[in-house]
Write a structure and sequence with these properties.
This protein has helices at residues 2-11, 15-30, 32-54, 60-69, 76-124, 129-132, 137-144, 146-179, 181-229, 231-236, 240-290, 293-340, 410-417, 435-441, 460-464, 475-484, 488-493, 511-524, 541-554, 590-596, 598-606; strands at residues 370-377, 387-394, 399-404, 425-430, 446-449, 458-459, 501-502, 529-533, 559-563, 575-580, 583-588. The chain is an alpha/beta fold. The chain has a six-stranded mixed β-sheet with strand order 5-8-9-3-10-11, with helices on both faces. Helix 19 links the parallel strand 8 (529-533) and strand 9. The structure holds adenosine-5'-triphosphate (ATP) and magnesium ion. Magnesium ion is lined by residues 410-411, 533.
Length: 609
């Protein structure tokens, strides 16, 4: 399961990027040889120094080496100075190169993170709405942002460090083995023993902490989000304190787990630091006892020099392995999402579309007719049929209304018509093709107004032109949209007009103004098919009838599908579809339906019609 997740994480990168990552990581791993050279030189310096003190001439490997590099004729001091200089240059050079490569790897991975987030967003929002809405928004948010970064910088970053440090250890141990097998074996035994022990003790805890952190993070954000959204309802019942306590509990648990996982690496640090000291002393003492001072000092200098590099590497490896575990714990949400989306990185190549799109808002070939033929639909999580055997047709320029009790299936029809959900059986055609094909072929030709339109943080202009770049805005179209939605007088009365700022949850704008904003937004793209779902329910009778009149003027040019509870507004419709429990029980003009459906007649009478 563990290696499987690493594999999954790697597969989020494009093939080309995986190759690039391997190349940088290998390059960094090769730097280990510089370490080896530096350390070997320090060992030679140690031996030369002792030889100098004891006035002995160099023998064996050391003599061969000094001869080979041509410094054998110099004094011991001269040899030590030269080797000291060279080893400093090599070790400093390696450090600098390592810094450079580490930075490159981290930047590379975080850029890839941004790319993967973008692709996941695109991939997720090309799914049916039933799928998108299955997860809570906080979960989705986490999976698309933090979760991705935890995979790239966290999982893959730790993996890269693990690999380079492992290479370093391997090279150092190999070098050490050539110089002194006994020291090598004891060093390897010491550090690998400690590294493994620490890993065994700490890794499970790290994974648990990672998983716990993600859960706490998401739930505390969720609670804060609920409080922001439901502020009025919560305030009125004086339950703000309850939320305060809930949030506080979650935040405290989160901070505890954060402290715990920040503390884990320190355990390793202290253990390994101590082991270097004790290990060095032991190895030096053993060498001194079984051999002489020269080998004791040179062994000790090699061990300490190697230890200087080995200990941090073991430390990083052990910490890397632990972070890897905890990052994997936090990456789950993202990996699951990627798996469900069958996200393959290589498929979507052109993510950054740099050319600014300039929509024309003209739809010469679009025919705004609609056809439902024997349509059936059930929501995936329910066994009730939401729409049963529905057939009807709407001709170009017609005004059709859909009415019926709450839960009758009206919004479901709108979603089917807009391609937001797809029928289980039967056929839906808009302009002769499926709704999603129509949207793709004539973007902007179809517009939709929900009951509770989204208000974004920004100016009224930005809200009306939602989804279009601000430098391609047409003033003329904004004005036309304001006219249809009866927002003109309101905008004129504002000091800042269209530049007036409004807020995310409808701050600074009333319920009815929000609905009119939704209508203006829909009208901005000059649609040929306008679907309104209870879009005027919050309006006063006068404004509603004004809007109804201006929508009526669109009749003939724009096909209008209006879902409404208030029957006054659908009176002028060419056709009314009457829905009950997912079935169409009547279709016809207002007067025809009154004669045919008692319930409809009664409702009309109740409304004084
Ligand atoms: N996402 C969903 N998952 C499962 N069932 C759903 C979902 N959305 C709607 N339903 C169910 O489908 C049926 C039709 O819902 P729909 O929203 O179309 O009704 P409606 O006619 O628009 O009602 P209202 O007038 O209250 O808006 C209802 O029984 C509802 O519970
Ligand atoms: Mg509805």
């Amino acid at each position: 399961m563990f290696p499987f997740k690493i594999r999954q994480s790697l597969l989020l990168l494009e093939k080309r990027d995986r190759r690039r990552l391997v190349v940088i990581v290998l390059a960094q791993a090769f730097l280990s040889f510089l370490d080896l050279i530096g350390i070997a030189l320090i060992g030679a310096i140690g031996a030369l120094t002792i030889n100098g003190v004891q006035s002995k001439s160099s023998t064996g490997l050391l003599a061969e080496f000094t001869n080979f590099v041509g410094i054998a004729n110099l004094t011991y001091q001269g040899q030590v100075v030269i080797l000291g200089l060279v080893s400093s240059v090599v070790l400093i050079g390696k450090t600098l190169l390592s810094i450079y490569f580490t930075r490159r790897i981290l930047r590379f991975l975080s850029n890839k993170g941004a790319l993967i987030s973008t692709k996941l967003v695109k991939s997720l929002f090309s799914q049916p709405i039933t799928y998108v809405q299955k997860q809570s928004s906080q979960e989705t948010l986490f999976a698309l942002t933090q979760g991705v970064m935890n995979i790239t910088l966290g999982v893959l970053g730790s993996l890269a460090t693990l690999f380079t440090d492992f290479a370093l250890l391997l090279v150092l141990c190999l070098g050490l083995f050539i110089v002194d097998p006994l020291v090598a074996l004891s060093t390897i035994a010491l550090f690998s023993g400690i590294g493994l022990l620490l890993y065994r003790v700490l890794h499970q805890r790290a994974l648990e902490l990672g998983i716990l952190q993600t859960e706490l993070h998401i739930s505390s954000n969720q609670k804060i989000f609920e409080l922001v959204k439901g502020y009025r309802e919560i305030l009125v019942k004086d339950r703000v304190n309850f939320y305060g306590n809930e949030i506080s509990k979650l935040r405290f648990s989160l901070s505890e787990t954060l402290a715990d996982s920040s503390f884990l690496p320190y355990i390793g640090k202290y253990v390994i630091e101590t082991s270097v000291l004790i290990g060095g002393l032991t190895i030096g003492a053993v060498q001194f006892a079984i051999s002489d001072a020269v080998s004791a000092v040179s062994t000790l200098s090699i061990f300490l020099a190697a230890g200087m590099r080995i200990a941090p590497a073991v430390l990083r490896m052990q910490q890397g392995a632990i972070s890897l575990k905890s990052y994997i714990g936090t990456a789950d949400r993202t990996l699951e999402l990627a798996e469900q989306l069958q996200f393959t990185s290589d498929e979507t190549a052109a993510v950054r579309n740099l050319s600014e799109d300039s929509p024309k808002f003209e739809y010469p070939d679009f025919k705004s007719n609609i056809k439902f033929q024997d349509v059936n639909f059930s929501y995936p999580n329910s066994n009730r049929i939401a729409i049963a055997d529905l057939s009807f047709e709407v001709k170009e320029g017609e005004f059709i209304a859909i009415v019926g009790d709450s839960g009758a299936g009206k919004s479901t029809i709108a979603d089917l018509m807009l391609g937001i959900i797809s029928p289980d059986s039967g056929e839906i055609k808009v302009s002769g093709v499926s709704p999603d094909a129509a949207i793709k072929s004539w973007p902007g030709a179809i517009a939709y107004v929900p009951q509770d339109p989204l208000v974004i943080e920004g100016s009224l202009r930005e809200n009306i032109t939602l989804g279009y770049g601000q430098n391609s805005i047409s003033v003329e179209r904004v004005e036309r949209a304001l006219k249809v939605s009866k927002l003109e007088t309101l905008i004129e009365s504002l000091d800042n007009g269209l530049d007036t700022l409004v807020g995310e949850s409808g701050w600074g704008i009333s319920g009815g103004q929000k609905q009119r904003l939704g209508i203006a937004r829909a009208m901005y793209s000059n649609p040929k098919l306008l679907v309104l779902d209870e879009a005027t329910s919050a309006l006063d009778a006068t404004t509603e009838s004004d809007i109804s009149a201006s929508i009526n003027t669109l009749k003939g040019r724009v096909t209008i599908v209006m879902i409404a509870h208030r029957l006054s507004i659908v009176r002028d419709a060419n056709k009314i579809v009457y829905m009950e429990n997912g079935k169409m029980i009547g279709v016809g003009s207002f007067e025809e339906l009154r004669l045919r459906i008692d319930k409809f007649d009664k409702q009309a009478r109740l409304m004084g019609l």
